[in-house]
Amino acid sequence: MGGRVSRVFRTFNVESRAQREISREKPRAAPRHPSARLDTAAHSSEIKEEIQRKDDRLLTLLKNVYVESRDPPVRVKGEGSEQLPSKQEEKRLTKVGHFGALDVKKVSKGKISIVEALTLLNNHKLHPQIWTAEKIAAEYSLELKDVNSLLEFFVPFTIEEFPKETKKAIKS
Question: Assembly state and interactors (predicted)?
Fold first, then answer.
């Protein structure tokens, strides 16, 4: 419905509006700058001669220039090559791991592997008097505030099994 109404307004008096636009005087183009109207044919021969002409003074100066280039000696990367300085991280061996080749062998100090995190969380949950935050921080080379945050915000899952006699069997 809305399309019909808009079409009526669009097509209203189209012919007279088009005729008025066609009969309107067109704007004149801006005048060109005099340098743009140069005769290229007349000046092209002068430009070509200027390009082809040799300047003896410039040639003598060019002959006096001498450039000597030497490549630096080639170094073999394997033998005593200097490496970029890099930050040496202290590594420690991991405490646990039961997956053989898939286990992480070394971890940076201040970090722990996932298996270690689960182990220390479980140890703290089972024996909180023995596995205190200070002991865990010393054992795994961690900062005390990080260990406190870890113990506060992460809790390992617990599995609870309900006895079978409490379940009611559905008889069909």
Answer: Binds calmodulin. Interacts with NDUFAF3.
Q: Domain residues of the chain, as ranges? A: 91-153
Q: Nearest-CA neighbor of 117 among 146, 160, 145, 91?
A: 146
Question: CA 2 to CA 14: how far, in whole Å?
Answer: 20
User: Helices then strands (H, E): number in the chain?
Assistant: 7, 2
**What b-and-e string marks burial along 117-152, b requiring 16 or more CB atoms within 10 Å of the CB?**
eebbbebbeeeeeebebeebbeebebeeebbeebbe
For the stretch 17-58, pLDDT in tens is 899 999 998 888 888 887 765 555 556 788 888 888 888 898
| Residue type, position 55, single letter | D
